[in-house]
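Query protein
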Amino acid sequence: MAQKPSIPKGTRDFSPVETARRNYIFDTIREVFRLYGFMPIETPAMENLSTLMGKYGEEGDKLLFKILNSGDYLAKADRALIDAGETTRLASQLCEKGLRYDLTVPFARFVVQHRNELQFPFKRFQIQPVWRADRPQKGRYREFYQCDADVVGSDSLVNEIELLQLIDEVFARLNVRIAIKINNRKILAGIAEILGQPDKIIDITVAIDKLDKIGIENVNKELAERGLTTEAIERLQPILAISGSTDERLAALSALLADSPVGVKGIEELNVVLNGTRDLGLRAELDLDVSLARGLNYYTGTIIEVKALDVAIGSITGGGRYDNLTGVFGMPGISGVGISFGADRIYDVLTALDLFPADTTKATTVMFANLGTAETVASMRALKELRAAGIAAEVYPDEAKMKKQMSWADSRNIPYVAIIGETELAEGKMTLKDMKTGEQKLVDTAGAIATIKGA
């Protein structure tokens, strides 16, 4: 007996209902992106590994899916490394390409490669799948979609304020209550400075970014494992414990970071973004989170993370400013800021809260029953007119008992069934049945269009 086929762990098939619901999310986000002046682009699923490696930190590099070279991929490999099991060093010899880990690094490559064709500031959005060799678990997949919006070629903090407004608008349209957490990487750099360990900024950010997930004790343990001194860890505690309103926490941070120029700059930038956002107003909660680090190494300024208030799930949107990303591709001095919506987690939130609109999965509005060859020809003429009027219509393809055809229409939640039998054929009309009320009436095609559109 043939083995039942399956798909890789961390990937999923999507049924028609699931696909329609996902498209509702994509369409909502896409519409808001366009409302804010962003233009669409697409990049390949695979990139050269030289493009991807070293952009996500040590942990991110481990999660890159690498693609074996075509043909005899071992031909140019160092046999000594193979015998020694040096898989990490072998990867560069066996693989020249990898699946994209996110959409931001490919976008940076796109900007550098097409710099002479773009007008700066350049605002783009991108809705495509990404891949990470992570351990699959609830809310975390190996293949998932990101919906990104980025602005490059502008240092203005107006962009951050606009992106916060955009996030607020998307989730308001999706009816999801959210909290937006905000911080600034310069503040984190300032913290590393006043701890006396500026060279440990990456170790500090990677560890404290896990505070909500693993707690302060485990964060301290990881900081020690990463080489921070006991004194530095002790000095960090009151910073992570800062409480009060956003303004009170900012004031406390300002006092603590007064001797750190980079920290002071971070406070100034955060104040501009917070005050600009408050002036415009948000429906979402906006909160300063000193532990927010967004583990990706390329962030240099504002960092943003969004959590759903009514569902226990990880971040559903994140982003920030990255002043140095295009520099690694030979184009220094180009500042950028962007956000990424996690469509798969948003789907899980909408499902858990039953927030998908009832008509999201509706496809066909009218099904024509199949009662014979001549009747079907007449039905197809009529449904062509319905489609021209913007009404989704189809004909049941096989001659079958009426009960079976009606059951099929009912199982797909089709609102109307049109019946053209001998009598209707002779009169040039159809019987239009409302599947919800059971009401039937004899109408011509124009009458059917008027009835359906007037419903």
Summary: The chain has two domains: 16-352, 363-454. The CA atoms of residues 211 and 219 lie 6 Å apart.
